[in-house]
């Protein structure tokens, strides 16, 4: 019987995911490691840390769980969620230089499975588990107990605990989000992510991939609308200033355990601990009903759970697509019954008014602005003077109605909440307004008659003018389609004006040789990037047509997608898919943001660029030479995947050709190959040279142009890298935080491939298909020859002479005519 009882006990222990609870370990230091089978308990005995396996899995993870909530531990944090140990009982958690907490394979201590991103080196680093559930790495010699070198609260998994923040610290660039487990028994990063989105006025957003699935209302000074249950059990804190935008909580009752968990099915669950039973009382916090589905009723649609169907249009609005609406397809949303005729073409109108909609969850604030010092009347006047402003409301209702919140563009995700909602004032035509803006009340009959007469007089001229405009526009559209053989979308200028808030500076996200680039949102909610030709640009219709011709017929995951174009007078605009992480140069050349790109992410970017170029050179219907490949022309999507952009200088050649000559050398110094910059000879090997420069810049975090190893030293990055390689010191080129032991073979291989690409003679450089193979396979690489050298003080100006010329180190695309 004793044997049977012992066997049952062992089986229960395995099923409860815990190997061992017995340990005297209280911290991890340079002399004390945590092995599989040991645990660390917080000083108050609330939390415990050790190795565990989810039910039904053989994988081993380092995690933190509630000690007293047994028999099945409630895991709140996982270190190596995406890199499990597969060798049972082989893991060791230890401190390595320079003060990093690392999980290593016990059978191979150089094999780092997971580690913290601590970069500060201290004499006595120690890892401790606090009673808050926060795992911290501190300097044991530092008297400040809150001086953390690293903390798990900055890197949560699926659980938000009291004391933890959600949001962004602008000083450090740290963005704290939570992400669901992939499945209930798999802690790997899942599809759902929760964040405090500070695009516009902050709001809590759940996403599945890049698609919004749920949105809280904005913080109104009392609570996050839609997450009221959270506030019943915790004191919510919100910080919104120039340094940070964060939210967090502290439990109202210290004896009650509380946690928020984002489940693998995309539901935020609120769990309250019941100490006497050792169990949790759980209920959904968001989403909780049909109206919590983001944007269910479309623009200006109103969701009401007490009605059937739950979607309707807000008062004075009608379905955009009535037939679809009757079929319960509400995605098209609603439109005003009376259009804003007095507010067009981006001009202001004082004749419009506003209609008050009480008791609602305020709409999506992604495209909103705030002013904390205005009162509601001042807010109304500001909105009235801006035709892009569609609504306004109070910002803070904790003590009356204070502050001003303004919406630009269509209003999305409106929900009826009679008891908990706020008042929203939507811009309307005077006839539909509660409070028209005219200062003298109702219009007199005389004024109405006068208006009618004037309309009658003008109607003929307006009709004629409109006919001429439509005719010219149609002729231009037909001309463009015939000339470019394209079927891309021709966007109306009014659509682009609405999408970019009339090209507001707040929407400007960059500028290049072609002109400024603006972020926009179309009427259907799709995010776009609008590249607008600048009046001062040296580029023009040729580059515009060239870009459309080149990229419109290309489809590849590593090429930016052209959605369409717009021509209005001198305005020539290209409309692309929006890349939320902007360009590569904004990361690798920024001391603060470069830490966000570890080596696996950078290697993925290098491979993506290589595959995109291989497609351009040999796999697409056209054979394209880009001619302006550089870090600022590599855009990053939401998952940090690279997209090659800016095809204004691209050239298409015959499939059996490899290059051509030109009298007009256009590109960016530092990325142009010697034969192209000096003689106007361009080929697929010119792009290979540019790619090699990119690789060396990505590895080193240094620009090729402007690089100087020491004072009075004008050798560029290529020459510097080649000398390091020649002397067997390539590792010294690598940016400091990238040099992890497990990454070194890949790093050194990438440097060698980069040097092969920048060899002086084009025939020595490999083609892109060979480069892709060399990057991803462990093959013997050729020995690179001396690269094409460029110095900071010398630029080749012709094929017959070298002249001294002082150059700036910016990366604006240049175009120069060279004598031939």
Give a summary of the structure in a few sentences.
By secondary structure, this protein is of the alpha+beta class.
Structure description:
This protein is of the alpha+beta class and about 800 residues long. It has five domains: about 1-155, Orthogonal Prism (Agglutinin, subunit A); about 155-290, Agglutinin, subunit A; about 290-430, no CATH class; about 470-575, Phosphorylase Kinase, domain 1 (2-Layer Sandwich), CATH 3.30.200.20; about 585-815, Transferase(Phosphotransferase) domain 1 (Transferase(Phosphotransferase), domain 1, Orthogonal Bundle), CATH 1.10.510. About 20% of the residues lie in helices and about 30% in strands. An eight-stranded mixed beta sheet has the order 26-25-33-29-34-31-32-30, with helices on one face. It has a six-stranded mixed beta sheet with strand order 35-39-40-38-37-36, with helices on both faces. A hairpin with a 2-residue loop joins strand 18 (about 205-210) and strand 19 (about 210-215). Helix 9 (about 600-620) runs antiparallel to helix 11, helix 9 packs antiparallel against helix 14 and helix 11 runs antiparallel to helix 13 (about 745-755). The radius of gyration is 31 Å and the shape is flat.
What is the fold's blueprint, element by element?
Blueprint: H1 2-15, E1 28-29, E2 34-35, E3 39-41, E4 47-52, E5 61-66, E6 75-78, E7 91-96, E8 100-105, E9 108-115, E10 125-129, E11 135-139, E12 148-151, E13 159-160, E14 165-169, E15 174-176, E16 178-183, E17 186-197, E18 203-208, E19 211-215, H2 228-233, E20 234-240, E21 244-251, E22 258-262, E23 268-274, E24 279-286, E25 301-303, E26 311-313, E27 317-319, H3 322-326, E28 334-336, E29 353-361, E30 368-371, H4 376-384, E31 389-393, E32 404-408, E33 414-416, E34 422-428, H5 445-484, E35 489-490, H6 493-499, E36 508-511, E37 516-521, E38 527-532, H7 541-551, E39 562-568, E40 571-577, H8 585-588, H9 599-619, E41 623-625, E42 634-636, E43 642-644, E44 651-653, E45 659-661, E46 664-667, H10 674-679, E47 681-683, H11 684-700, H12 717-726, H13 744-757, H14 768-776, E48 794-796, E49 802-804, E50 814-817
Parallel strand pairs: 25-33, 35-39
Antiparallel strand pairs: 1-10, 2-7, 3-4, 4-5, 5-6, 7-8, 8-9, 10-11, 11-12, 13-22, 14-15, 14-21, 16-17, 17-18, 18-19, 20-21, 22-23, 23-24, 25-26, 27-28, 29-33, 29-34, 30-32, 31-32, 31-34, 36-37, 37-38, 38-40, 39-40, 41-44, 42-43, 45-47, 46-50, 48-49
């Amino acid at each position: 019987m004793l044997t049977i009882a012992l066997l049952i006990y062992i089986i229960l222990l395995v099923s409860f995911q815990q190997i061992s609870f017995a340990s005297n370990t209280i911290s991890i230091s340079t002399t004390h490691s945590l092995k599989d089978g040991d645990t660390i308990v917080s000083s108050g005995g609330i939390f415990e840390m050790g190795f565990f396996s989810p039910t039904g899995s053989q994988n081993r993870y380092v995690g933190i769980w509630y000690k007293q909530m047994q028999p099945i531990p409630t895991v709140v944090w996982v270190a190596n969620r995406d890199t499990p140990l597969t060798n049972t009982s082989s893991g060791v958690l230890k401190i390595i230089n320079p003060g990093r907490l690392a999980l290593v394979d016990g059978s191979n201590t150089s094999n780092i499975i997971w580690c913290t991103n601590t970069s500060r080196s201290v004499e006595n680093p120690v890892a401790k588990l606090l009673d808050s559930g926060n795992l911290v790495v501190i300097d044991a010699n530092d008297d400040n107990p809150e001086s953390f070198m690293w903390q798990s609260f900055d890197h949560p998994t699926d659980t938000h605990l009291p004391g933890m923040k959600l949001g962004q610290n602008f000083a450090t660039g740290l963005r704290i989000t939570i992400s669901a487990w992939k499945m209930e028994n798999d802690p790997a990063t899942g599809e759902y992510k929760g964040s405090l989105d500070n695009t516009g006025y902050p709001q809590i957003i759940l996403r599945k991939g890049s698609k919004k699935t749920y949105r809280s209302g904005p913080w109104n000074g009392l609570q996050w609308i839609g997450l009221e249950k959270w506030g019943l059990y915790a004191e919510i804190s919100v910080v919104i200033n120039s340094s940070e935008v964060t939210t967090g909580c502290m439990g109202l009752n210290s004896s009650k355990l509380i946690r928020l968990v984002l489940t693998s099915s995309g539901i935020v669950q609120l769990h309250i601990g019941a100490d006497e039973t050792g169990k949790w009382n759980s209920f959904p916090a968001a989403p909780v009903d049909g109206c919590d589905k983001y944007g269910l009723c479309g623009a200006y649609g109103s969701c009401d759970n007490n009605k059937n169907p739950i979607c309707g249009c807000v008062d004075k609005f009608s379905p955009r697509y009535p037939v679809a609406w009757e079929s319960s397809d509400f995605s098209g949303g609603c439109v005003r019954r009376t259009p804003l005729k007095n507010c067009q073409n981006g001009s202001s109108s004082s004749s419009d008014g506003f209609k008050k909609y009480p008791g609602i969850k305020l709409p999506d604030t992604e495209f909103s602005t705030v002013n904390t010092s205005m009162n509601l009347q001042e807010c109304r006047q500001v909105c009235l003077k801006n035709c892009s402003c569609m609504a306004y409301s109070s910002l803070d209702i904790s003590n009356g109605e204070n502050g001003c919140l303004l919406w630009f563009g269509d209003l999305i995700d409106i929900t009826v909440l009679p008891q908990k909602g706020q008042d929203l004032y939507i811009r309307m035509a005077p006839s539909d307004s509660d409070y028209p803006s005219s200062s003298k009340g109702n219009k007199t009959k005389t004024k109405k008659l006068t208006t009618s007469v004037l309309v009658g007089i003008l109607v003929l001229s307006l009709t004629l003018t409109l006919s001429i405009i439509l005719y010219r526009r149609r002729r231009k559209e037909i001309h463009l389609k015939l000339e470019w053989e394209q079927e891309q979308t021709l966007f109306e200028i009014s659509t682009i004006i609405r999408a970019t808030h009339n090209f507001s500076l707040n929407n400007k996200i960059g500028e290049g040789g072609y002109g400024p680039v603006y972020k926009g949102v179309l009427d259907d909610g799709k995010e776009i990037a609008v590249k607008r030709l600048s009046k001062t640009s040296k580029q023009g219709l040729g580059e515009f047509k060239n870009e459309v011709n080149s990229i419109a017929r290309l489809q590849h995951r590593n090429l930016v997608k052209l959605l369409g174009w717009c021509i209005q007078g001198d305005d020539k605009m290209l409309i692309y898919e929006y890349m939320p992480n902007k360009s590569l140069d904004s990361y690798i050349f920024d001391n603060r943001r470069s830490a966000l790109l570890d080596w696996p992410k950078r290697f993925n970017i290098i491979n993506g660029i290589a595959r995109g170029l291989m497609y351009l050179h040999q796999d697409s219907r056209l054979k394209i030479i880009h001619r302006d490949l550089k870090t600022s022309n590599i855009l990053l999507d939401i998952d940090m995947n690279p997209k090659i952009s800016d095809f204004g200088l691209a050239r298409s050649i015959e499939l059996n050709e490899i290059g051509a000559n030109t009298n007009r050398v256009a590109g960016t110094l530092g990325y142009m190959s010697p034969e192209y910059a000096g003689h106007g000879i361009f080929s697929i090997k010119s792009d290979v040279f540019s790619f090699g420069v990119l690789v060396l810049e990505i590895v080193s975090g240094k620009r090729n142009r402007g690089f100087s190893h020491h004072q009075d030293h004008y050798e560029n990055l290529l020459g510097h890298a080649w000398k390091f390689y020649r002397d067997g010191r390539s590792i010294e080129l690598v940016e400091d935080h990238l040099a992890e032991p497990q990454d070194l073979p890949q790093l050194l291989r990438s440097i060698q491939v980069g040097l092969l690409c920048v060899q002086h003679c084009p025939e020595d450089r490999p083609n892109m298909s060979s480069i892709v193979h060399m990057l991803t396979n462990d093959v013997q690489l050729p020995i690179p020859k001396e690269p094409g050298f460029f110095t900071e003080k010398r630029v080749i100006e012709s094929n017959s002479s070298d002249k001294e010329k002082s150059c700036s180190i910016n990366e604006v695309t240049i175009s120069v005519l060279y004598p031939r």
